[in-house]
Design goal:
alpha/beta, Rossmann fold, 15 helices
Length: 426
């Protein structure tokens, strides 16, 4: 006896990283009218199932490998031999589940699998990756031309970058030809696009030129929940400024080991993440995972690897950001933060005495008019509402109260929160 489907089904394919899993869960929370399935490696199954969704396993590209190769400037992993088995296994899962749409969050191949199976694909794109970006991206410091970029005309830099992206696209051209897929995409950046594209940045951080009808700037997206970190907050000395170190899954905490110095006892120093061993002085508070929405109102400066979510979440609270990027995408974010005057890009090799004065000056900026204006302009609840609107239009559905934003953040179950903390520890 065949089962009758009562809900539309969305199948998410996030990159195999906690930050991507968590931001996809924010969108899933906005559309409870849908049945939601997730691709995920086993380490994330408890997290996804704890939020009431189905987790499925497929082959994937290792996020750790991608980050490591990115840090080394090695793009050899973008090959047909690496991409093809992942694409085919994703196509297998799509055929089994028969979703009404696929949602791709930088899985690199889910859009190919969706096209191969005839399913519509919604792609989540960070604004600085959009080909319609209205500002010029600087040359990342890790780029071989970085040291001479100031002597090269911008038009030539654009040509060189386009040639690099054209070379990276070769693997996709091979697969598209082999499987009879569309041949209209001409460069690597276009392979992040879907039938519908969701731009996930604030309009100021990543302003866009005129975008086509299948592009939608829905706003910034990062993990939020309503847990109150009362025990940690009680440990903070209200007479001191507070520094938060949040290097995510890809950052290098050892680059800010200067915070171990006794002179930083005059600050509350919090470090959150999987590996905090580089910061172990007795004046430092360490945690594998925190509900940042609860903690950030008490923070005056954030030190981060410049992941998009970490940067935008800090700015949403009007907090300056010190950026320690580890690969080119984060370098683009860091350069943009510096260009806007919301923080600086650093290497970790700065003079310790210089850093002490630097930190003192920047911890005084939070309450200044420039940063006060940021508060409220980056709103995940509004992003979720726009996503809900978009799906209602896309599927011509009456989702009920679709125009009313949900201001209260969905609070994960204790089981789901424990799953997040387990992933961070492991």
């Amino acid at each position: 006896m065949s089962s009758v489907r009562t809900k539309q089904v969305l199948l998410f394919f996030p990159m195999d990283m906690l930050s991507h899993m968590l931001r996809c869960l924010q969108l899933a929370d906005a559309v409870k009218d849908f049945a939601v399935c997730y691709f995920a490696t086993e380490q994330f199954h408890a997290l996804i199932e704890g939020r009431g969704h189905r987790a499925v396993t497929t082959k994937c590209l290792s996020a750790e490998m991608i980050i490591k190769k990115g840090q080394e400037g090695d793009s050899s992993w973008v090959s047909a031999d690496n991409l093809e088995p992942v694409m085919l296994d994703q196509a297998r899962v799509i055929r089994e589940i028969q979703p009404d749409a696929v949602v791709n969050d930088y899985s690199f191949t889910a859009h190919l699998a969706a096209e191969l199976t005839g399913k519509p694909c919604l792609s989540m794109i960070n604004g600085l990756f959009s080909k319609y970006l209205a500002v010029k991206k600087g040359v990342p410091p890790s780029h071989p031309l970085a040291s001479v970029a100031r002597f090269i005309p911008q038009v030539l830099i654009d040509v060189i970058q386009n040639l690099v992206f054209r070379r990276l696209h070769k693997a996709y051209r091979v697969l598209r030809k082999k499987y009879g897929l569309s041949q209209t995409r001409k460069c690597f950046m276009e392979e992040f696009e879907g039938d519908i594209n969701l731009l996930l940045d604030s309009c100021e951080f990543a302003p866009q030129a005129a975008i086509p009808e299948n592009y939608h700037a829905i706003g910034a997206l990062f993990h939020v929940d309503s847990k109150f970190e009362d025990k940690l907050i009680e440990r903070l000395d209200s007479r001191k400024k507070t520094i938060l170190v949040n290097m995510g899954s890809s950052g290098q905490v050892e680059r800010v080991s200067f915070l171990n110095s006794p002179e930083y006892r005059r600050y509350n120093v919090i470090v959150v993440g999987k590996d905090t061993s580089a910061l172990k002085a007795d004046h430092i508070i360490a945690a594998p995972f925190l509900s940042l929405e609860s903690v950030l109102p008490h923070v005056d400066l954030v030190l981060t690897q410049a992941g998009t979510g970490n940067v935008l979440q800090a700015l949403s609270h009007g907090i300056p950001v010190f950026c320690y990027p580890t690969f080119f995408e984060q370098e683009w974010n860091a350069l943009r933060v510096q260009e806007l005057g919301y923080g600086v890009m650093l290497t970790g090799n700065e003079n310790k005495d210089t850093m002490a004065g630097f930190i003192q000056r920047w911890t005084e900026k939070k309450a200044t008019p420039k940063f006060d204006l940021l508060v409220g302009t980056i709103n995940v609840a509004q992003t979720k509402m726009r996503f809900r609107h978009l799906l209602a239009h896309f599927f011509s559905l009456d989702l009920g109260h679709v125009s009313r934003p949900v201001e209260k953040t969905v609070d994960p179950s204790n089981e789901a929160r424990r799953a997040i903390e387990t992933v961070e520890r492991n």
